[in-house]
Design brief:
mainly alpha, three-stranded mixed sheet, 7 helices, 3 strands, 52% helix
Length: 168
């Protein structure tokens, strides 16, 4: 039976396709930031600052490679789900939002419309997908686990389409 996307996966793919994000290389921070008008900076810690039309992602200076890309995707997911600036919310609210954004990060870092880039018959497909999407293997594994779980659960993000459209 072919995999059927959840509402969340469909909404994320629709948003990315609307911005012409068509291949894994389009998911790199430099490419996504251009398409979504995000300025990338580095600092001591990572956070997103959004004010009207200004979108700034500060990535932790010490983080590099696949972890840096994962950090970018997580900030991107935060901005899709939550309107608040990370600098202006209490830490316990930020931590709650971080858990919500984590799930979206898995879906956004490997969107539904790009699953065909992964050779699921390859015994090393986790490593292959990690290299192709340039994200840590643990994120690929989380994405796969999400897909398996979603085949058995009802999608909770019914109103996600509305939130995603407001970011485009």
């Amino acid at each position: 039976m072919p995999y059927s996307p959840t509402l969340l996966e469909g909404a994320v793919s629709d948003l990315l396709l609307h911005k012409k994000v068509l291949s894994p290389k389009d998911l790199l921070p430099e490419s996504l930031s251009k398409r979504f008008g995000i300025e990338i900076m580095t600092g001591k810690t990572s956070f997103a600052y959004i004010d009207s039309d200004v979108k700034v992602f500060v990535l932790e200076r010490k983080v590099e490679g696949k972890e840096r890309n994962y950090q970018f995707h997580k900030l991107f997911a935060h901005t899709l789900l939550h309107d608040e600036n990370h600098l202006e919310i209490p830490m316990e609210m930020y931590e709650k939002q971080a858990k919500e954004a984590e799930r979206l990060t898995w879906v956004e870092a490997i969107p539904y419309h790009m699953l065909n880039y992964i050779d699921f018959t390859d015994p090393e497909f986790i490593k292959q997908a990690s290299d192709m999407f340039y994200i840590p293997e643990k994120i690929v594994q989380n994405r796969i686990n999400f897909m398996i779980q979603q085949q058995f659960e009802y999608d909770e993000f019914d109103n996600f389409n509305e939130k995603v459209k407001s970011f485009a």
